[in-house]
Amino acid sequence: MTYTVDAVAKAIELLFLVAEEGGHGVTELAKRSGNTKARAFRLLSTLEECGLVRREMPLATYALGSRALALGAAAQNQLSLVQIANELLPALGAQCNESVLVRVREGNETVCVAWWDAPHALRVHNQLGNHRPLGVGASGKLLLAHAPQDFQDEFLKHDLKKLTDRTITRRGELKKELQKILDAGLSMSEAEVSPEMVSVAAPVRDSTGTVVASLSMSAPASRVSKTALKKNGEIIRQGAQAFSRALGFGA
Predict the structure, then answer these.
(1) At what angle are helices 6-20 and 26-33 packed, to 10 degrees?
(2) DSSP letter for each residue of the chain
(3) Segment 92-145, tens digit of pLDDT
(4) What count of other Cβ atoms lies within 10 Å of the Cβ of residue 162?
(5) Paired residues of 112 in beta bridges
(6) Can you tell me the distance from the alpha carbon of 21 to that of 25, in angstroms, rounded to the nearest whole number?
(7) Do the beta carbons of residue 127 and residue 238 sit within 8 Å?
(8) Percentage of the residues of the chain whose pLDDT score is greater than 70
(9) Mind listing the pLDDT tens digit for each residue in 171-200?
(10) Over the stretch 216-244, which tens digit does the pLDDT of each residue have?
(11) In what order do the strands lie in the sheet with 187-190?
C-alpha cells in the first residue's frame, strides 16, 4: 500500500529542477521532468500560486519564488540548530548528569529535535520527533511564553490539555506562569508532564534575538531535589547562552 500523491511528487521534482537549473521555460522543464507540457504548466502554475516559483518575463522562464527562499532559510537555520545541539548536549548532559534535550515550537505543540540520554538505569527517555502539547512542562511553557502575543492570545482561547494533576489548565494561572518565566529567564516543571518527572528549560535565541528553541534537562523526581533542580537550572541557562552565541546571538 502506498500513501504518496503522484501530483505532489511531480510538483516537488519540478521545484527541485527550478532550484537546480533556474532559467528554463515550461517546454524544457516538461522534457527534463518527464511530464507533458500541459501537466508541467499546471504544476508550475500551482507552485507559482503558492509562491514557491515565479515566472520571469519576457521569456516566461521559471525561478524560485520568495516562499522557497524562506523555506530554504528556515531549513538552514533548523539544520544548524540541530547540528549545534548535537555538539553541545553530551557535555551539558554530563555536567548535569541527567538527560538533556532541545525542543522547538510546531503549531500548538513542541517537538524534540535533539536529545542526550543520561546513563542511568532509571531515567526519562526522550525520542527524536516526540510531540507534546504547547504550554505543558518546562519547555512547553517556555516556548509559549516567548511566542508572539497574538499567537498566545489565540492559543489561550482554547481548552488547555491536562496530562497530570499538576498540569496548569487555568488560563489566568498559566498567564502568570508565563510572565514569571519571562522575568526569570528559566522555566521549571514538577510533575506537569508525568507524575515522576521534573524539568528545567532555558531559551535558545538566533542571531536576531528570537527564541527558536528550548534547552532543557529532565529527570525522575525521586533523584533530583529542589536544590539540585535549581543548580541544574543554572547549568542549562549557561548552556542555552552558549547555544545562542553559536547561532549568532550577540555577535
Answers:
(1) 120
(2) -----HHHHHHHHHHHHHHHSTT-BHHHHHHHHT--HHHHHHHHHHHHHTTSEEEETTTTEEEE-HHHHHHHHHHHHHHHHHHHHHHHHHHHHHHHTSEEEEEEEETTEEEEEEEE--S-SS-----TT-EEETTSHHHHHHHHHTS-HHHHHHHTTSPPP-SSTTS---HHHHHHHHHHHHHHS-EEEESSSSTTEEEEEEEEE-TTS-EEEEEEEEEETTT--HHHHHHHHHHHHHHHHHHHHHTTTT-
(3) 999 999 999 999 999 999 999 999 988 765 555 556 778 899 999 999 999 999
(4) 13
(5) 103
(6) 11
(7) no
(8) 93
(9) 999 999 999 999 999 999 998 998 889 999
(10) 999 988 888 888 899 999 999 999 999 99
(11) 131-133, 109-116, 99-106, 211-220, 197-205, 187-190
Q: Copy the grid coordinates of residue 61.
A: 522562464
